[in-house]
Amino acid sequence: MRLHEYQAKSVFADAGIPTPDAELASSVDEVVEAAEDIGYPVAVKAQVHVGGRGKAGGIKLAENREEAKEAAESIIGMDLKGYHVGRVLVEEAVNFKNELYVGVTMDRGEGKPVAMVSTKGGVDIESVAEEDPDAIAREHVDPAFGMHPYQARKAVYEAGVPRELANDVASVLTTLYQLWDDRDASEVEINPLMVTEDDEIVAADAVMNIDDDALFRQQELAEMEEEAYEDDLERKAGEYGFDYVRLDGNVGIIGNGAGLVMTTLDLVDYYGGDPANFLDIGGGAKAERVTNALDMVFSDENVDAVVFNIFGGITRGDEVAKGINDALGQFDEIPKPVVVRLAGTNAEEGREILNDELVTVEETLEDAVQRTVEFSQEEAQ
What we know:
Elements: H1 5-14, E1 22-25, H2 28-38, E2 42-46, E3 59-62, H3 65-75, E4 79-80, E5 83-84, E6 88-92, E7 96-107, E8 112-118, H4 125-131, E9 136-140, H5 149-159, H6 163-182, E10 185-196, E11 201-203, E12 207-210, H7 219-222, H8 225-228, H9 232-240, E13 243-246, E14 251-255, H10 258-270, E15 277-280, H11 287-299, E16 305-312, H12 317-329, E17 338-344, H13 347-353, E18 360-362, H14 365-380
Parallel strand pairs: 14-16, 16-17, 17-18
Antiparallel strand pairs: 1-6, 2-3, 2-6, 4-5, 7-8, 7-10, 8-9, 10-11, 10-12, 13-15
């Protein structure tokens, strides 16, 4: 579960991390009222789960009442990279002289959490990692013992953080690790951690993603789940128990396994298509789950064609095929082309069972993806 910025900042502030004064608003009048309460200048920030909000027009500074009103009118209701903006965070603007990055995530290659610090904050940290990896100091942590104070200081010094800020930044990094551990997070980060003219540090942004499987023991965060959904599709995914991420493309992707779905995403991109989503329906592919998955993908107005990548393991291929037939049979009309690749146990029998009047059946994943990309390009014309 991904928390919105305002939700993550609330968690960070409760843990003692400095954050700007802020109020959530969902109308122009509420934005103006919040700005008056906080005091100008303020930042008006779209609350959607996408990066690059500022460049896309989702963050604006306001020096007075008129500018706050204009910012609210511009941002609330806008389409930001495929997401409807219904709420904004009105936040005290920070007069800063430098921007840092701090974060904690899991390094699956090492099998340990890793704490990271960089003096190149305020930009896409993935780009920094690719273009200038030495600009990010990393410190792996043994989860059995937690982060020792010397590890936080070591990461801060190796990143080149000025001495006068080192203790404060190390304290924030230690707190982030503790939150990552205590709250069953998969990722926590502050980008940027701003340095003010008075050499104080303030979390100007906040990211916190929680392991869905741990929500049962994170009741406070679980209560935020409904508000954390971006739209009806994410809400449906939560109700159906699917792993789902909405993307910017027009090729809908459904698979029964995270690895299968990721492979399909890569191939769609490789063959010139644009993935519209990551949708893992989990083990098996019974009719109800297939129907729910199709309901989600068909509901995405950006999708022009759909590819199923299904592996029959414990659930046999013929059972999967019957599930797909039953699911598609519940629709009066198939609104978008559907291509199925079926592999694994009894795959050949499954391909024979599939109703080729409702779907296009391909034997290999490569052929299925290429056909789907072709359909999506034809539909988009």
